[in-house]
Design a protein that fits this description.
The protein is built from 6 helices and 7 strands. The protein is α+β, with helices and mostly antiparallel strands and 187 residues long. Helix 1 runs antiparallel to helix 2.
Length: 187
Amino acid sequence: FIYNAINTIVSFCYTDSEKAAKLLVNFSKYLRLIFDIDHKLIRVSLQREIEMIKAYVEIEKARFGELINVEYDIDPELFSVEIPSFCIQPLVENAIKHGLCKKGTGGTVLVSVKKDDGVFIIRVSDTGIGMSAEKLYKLRTIESANEGVGYFNVSRRIKSWKYAQIDIQSTEGEGTAITIKMSESMA
């Protein structure tokens, strides 16, 4: 990602210096948010995770243009909730790289965060290419990071938290949805 982001910014330096400057600001923000996480706490506010996602998405939009659309449906009262760090951004990254960009017409990623009866529900869904039942099974039963690194890392992080669970659903040709549920007592 870093290599591609820098190359994208360099290319805009020759054609659109204002766009290059905006991308540098987003790239700088993204890096600051990544490097500034207190790894001892292993949690960040939802707002911080969303800021990191938005900075990432702006850089990817510069690379892929109209193929990428990202929408957010988040209850504003939940922005202060602490969640495991890097539990949403890698899912958005996967949705863009493996779902939307592999679909000739692109599509939309929806990031939704709601609270229902004491449970926080985080959902990242896309209208990308989806995956076969065989690939979906492999991701659900994955035991090492050899395949599906992003999902594996998020899944491992979520499963290590008491009162948290993750689920993945996908339909080939229609898209993928990953849902994380966390008890209010965890957040």
